[in-house]
Protein 1
Amino acid sequence: MKYQTAIVVGASSGMGRELVRQLAASGTKVAAIARREERLQELVNEFPGLVTPIVHDVTDHDAIPELFQTITRDLRGLDLFIYNSGAMPIVEVKEFTWEKDKQMLDVNISGAVAWCNQAADRFLHTNHGYLVGIGSVAGDRGRHKQPVYNASKAFFHTYLEALRNRGVCVSTIKPGPVDTEMTAPLNMKGMMSAEQAATIILSKADKNGEHYLKLAHRIAFYIIKRVPSPIFRKLKI
Ligand SMILES: NC(=O)c1ccc[n+]([C@@H]2O[C@H](COP(=O)([O-])OP(=O)(O)OC[C@H]3O[C@@H](n4cnc5c(N)ncnc54)[C@H](OP(=O)(O)O)[C@@H]3O)[C@@H](O)[C@H]2O)c1
């Protein structure tokens, strides 16, 4: 067992669920956090004694400091913290709907900061623990289809870099397309499975820095990030 204790925020489906499953399968005690209680209960049933379900909405930002203290006290420590919660509602190409944008800002930015601040503060002062943030390749450029989702992930990448520069061990993960509930409406082909993504994420969890899940993405986004804006605009990608 690499980690004795872990918190996964956004644990009820997709990559978060698989992260909990793989951590618990290796013997890690995991606090699994999300809104959908029945999904968390399935994880408890699969790994009794190892998974603790915590029903919480990350947009309840003010509840987070006390909840973090309660969880770490009950776990008797914290080796690994993963912020995986994310919102990406379907946004039409010329749509500007504040309710959808606010949901992304509340979950992908404010919820992320409120939770990661707690973990970073603890890890910095105890000089122990690994922080993982699930960003996205989508945060590498401002694309016409998803302005706020892209910008929220870019914010998260920059915030996590700053935590790294304060001395916390932070792994920023930038997945490409992964087959989950979030991407189901997009009908994309050739996506990575959530199981495979979780395995790669855990292999990079203790590696300070930014990580893509595939070498091909690392190379592609090295180039995409450097395409001048007027050309990128014409590409419509
Ligand atoms: N799938 C992809 O292609 C892809 C690519 C790059 C990055 N990502 C990122 O990867 C992460 C995981 O996404 P996924 O693809 O695995 O999608 P998913 O299956 O939809 O999982 C999203 C998770 O976020 C949680 N969540 C959403 N809103 C929440 C809230 N208000 N409070 C607490 N938890 C909340 C959900 O739990 P509840 O609904 O139960 O609360 C769920 O556990 C996200 O940050 C996403 O942006 C995904």
Protein 2
Amino acid sequence: MSIPPNDTWHIVLPDKAQVFRRRAMRFEVLLTHRPDWAYLAFAEQIASAQQHSMTDHPSPRLPDERLLRLRNAHAVPPLCAHSGRQENGWHEALAVIGSRVSHATTGKTRTAIERLLDTPGAQIESFARGVLCGYYGGVDSEARVLLAAALQVHWVAMAAEAAARAAFGPTEVPSLCPVCGSPPVATVLRRHGGTLDRYLHCSLCATEWSMAVDRCTSCGSRGWLHYFRAGGAHSAVRAEACDECGSYLKILNLDHAPTLDPTADDLFTLELDAAAQDAGFARSGPNLLFVPGIEPSV
Ligand SMILES: [Zn+2]
Ligand SMILES: [Zn+2]
């Protein structure tokens, strides 16, 4: 089902100086609640390394103006991550992130990271394309997370760079990012004046784009939606599941808890994933900092 754009559709491009700084800070707070959770500490190290990497990230090379205009005219994401265009900027981010995280890890996680950093160019390009296409095989889970982290840095930098050079509008598939074409990691609710607006938050480039609060974010149905709620301090996070397409995605209410981060708080509320999946629903978008079943040694 396609969802018609409306007058209120709008987009929020990422602030590259803030995305990973806020995420790292949020992980630090979450770690105070669960200091024994090794994976949370691993994710915090990655977010911190992403922030460090972004400070020195080279200016990304965007597609030329003609191609940007052409894609916009055809409602295709201007910086489509699945276009086959080879990107080079993420290699610098991987070197920085890999170096910092490997020094903080031990055992098979460190071995997997070092093996990734020694991977020949053509093969690592193939691994990166797999990450961008949602393919989980071919590379160690820990290495896959690092690759995804580097790709996030590069695509956030590109989306920020494109803010002044490309026009953005609704695309053919409203559930995918209008900048890079990736699925969302979660949705967020923000209050503007008297209304609560919903945005989907891109799993790759951190762009946010608006969508009606009463539709499934995957298929657009206004049919049967179920909600799974987190307990205690995380009552501002819930999972929305759709009977029509069988998918679910989490909603973070930033009106109630402004410091929530879509990537960090999605990871922190895995019990909601378990509840939705036990009820037969499947995630409609990935959290690129998490591969199900991963248990790094840190
Ligand atoms: Zn995106
Ligand atoms: Zn649906």
Protein 3
Amino acid sequence: MRASVLTPALELVIEQRPVPPVATNDVLVQVSSVGVCGSDVHYYRHGRIADFVVEQPMVLGHEAAGRIVAAGEAVDPRRIGERVSIEPQRPRLDSAQSLSGHYNLDPDIEFYATPPIDGAFAEYVSIPSVFAHRIPESMSDDAAALLEPLSVGIAAAQKAQLTVGDKVLIAGAGPIGLVLVQVAAAYGATEIVVSDLDAARLALAEQLGATASYDPRRGEQPEEPRFDVFFDASGAAPAVVAGIRALAPLGRAVLVGMGADDYALPISTIQNRELLVTGVFRYANTWPTAIGLVQSGAVNLDVLVSGRFGLDQVKEALDTAGSAEVLKNMVLPGLA
Ligand SMILES: NC(=O)c1ccc[n+]([C@@H]2O[C@H](COP(=O)([O-])OP(=O)(O)OC[C@H]3O[C@@H](n4cnc5c(N)ncnc54)[C@H](O)[C@@H]3O)[C@@H](O)[C@H]2O)c1
Ligand SMILES: [Zn+2]
């Protein structure tokens, strides 16, 4: 098969590789569409994220969909031919975290495109069959791939115990902020305020359900602390501090964005208002909800797609990703 490989010198090359073997409980998926994520761009530009370093050639891409073309011995062979969205993780199912339902927190988990594990910018990938989620025929390949970032938003909403009537503040209107807007609306939030530095992204946030938006550089942030939930999807320390300060007593803050490892938080505000502040690490058990939200029309993922690239064009897809105009580039391994 063909795969786009990132070398330790941070060059992208097309390699001919053997199709991955199909273990007993796995399926082999012919990849149709893969979203480019900020983490892919980061590995390509800097060769590392925290302790994960590109030390050997690896394949990027973890937001993937495709069609099952082979099944391991323990998998129902009738699944061959199914269109699926891939949940790109491989936890040890007997870890304490997995047994308690939090398999995303298994310290020995393998995750696509996190060194040294290969991702999905390739013609075929293998995945445990339970993480190849069947999608309805009405769902596009791109939307099926983007159930992955949607899952991040759903996991954050669950952490925040988001509920009907909540007033929600979201910092950042990139792909994660924009799925959070839609998830918040689907959960019944009655006020959804979004901040970003880019006017076009703020306009899209309003189109997708935000009730108001602002650019923090214009000093327009909310004065009174009245929000029930704050999501950070920016990774920007000033946005996190302002977001926590904007919470009403008993408010919940979920820090999704990744920025500096350490920075100062307004502790007395957290104490005096009894705020809950937590992080979220990817997701567990979110795909059924994600599929339902897209199928019902509550969440539109196709609107996030900016461009489509073949395996030969992964460099272009990564070079143009992350600009204000580009929300989500997609890599289509089957594109001629
Ligand atoms: N915790 C997890 O499991 C998880 C999973 C996926 C992504 N993430 C993180 O979530 C974040 C969002 O992902 P994305 O793909 O949408 O990234 P993105 O870079 O496209 O979006 C971030 C947005 O934040 C905006 N921003 C920057 N500074 C700001 C400020 N001071 N106030 C308001 N907005 C500001 C940017 O203009 C940009 O639109 C990233 O940090 C990413 O690493 C975390
Ligand atoms: Zn991602």
Protein 4
Amino acid sequence: MARFINKTLEIIKNICFPIACCNCGDFVDSEGLCFNCWKRIEWISDPKCKICGVPFEIDLDAICPVCLRKKPNFDKAVAAFKYDDFSRNMILKFKHWDATHIAEKFGRWMYGACAADIANADVIVPVPIHFLKRLKRQYNQSELLGLELQKFSGIHYEPRILKKIKRTAPQEGLTREKRLKNVRGSFEIDENYVSLIEGKFIILVDDVLTTGSTVNECSKMLKKYNAARVVVVTIARVDS
Ligand SMILES: [Zn+2]
Ligand SMILES: [Zn+2]
């Protein structure tokens, strides 16, 4: 009887307050994506590079040429899905609109992608943005994602460890070399939090991984203060 009442209330709620797909706006029966949008997401699974997580076309248990040429400062990077035209649209909504309900979905998917790693982690650290950018945008999307990961994993979350001390030009459209140069020296560690870095396993959270320059620079700082392990977790990554 209680189940029947709950179901009836749920139906009434959906009629009075219909839920929209967080991508296309179509009605859905539970929060999230409609089936059509869900189908279009390119989820990342094996085979992929053991370090940066770039998907491989063929079944290889290996390291990609980029990581072989120069090992990144982070130990591993995982992402929930590929960054393509479809997911770009969804992520842009999250970045530029008041879309905290999308953060909840993204957090759940990111947690699914990194569950094995995060279980052994000590602290979740979001990639910071410059305070002037934060004033303009009002929130840092990486912080929202980090908070969601804390919710799902129960791992300590600390957004004050890393600081963005320099304003930098947007990374979009820059070459790999220019991206590296653009972010070099733009992050700093808050020395009040070194005890949360030394010997610790850190989950570094960002929204999208492109060339990895930003997370690489953040990882460099964390490793400078003797972080034992840094695993980068993003919602999406480019597939090359
Ligand atoms: Zn949809
Ligand atoms: Zn790689």
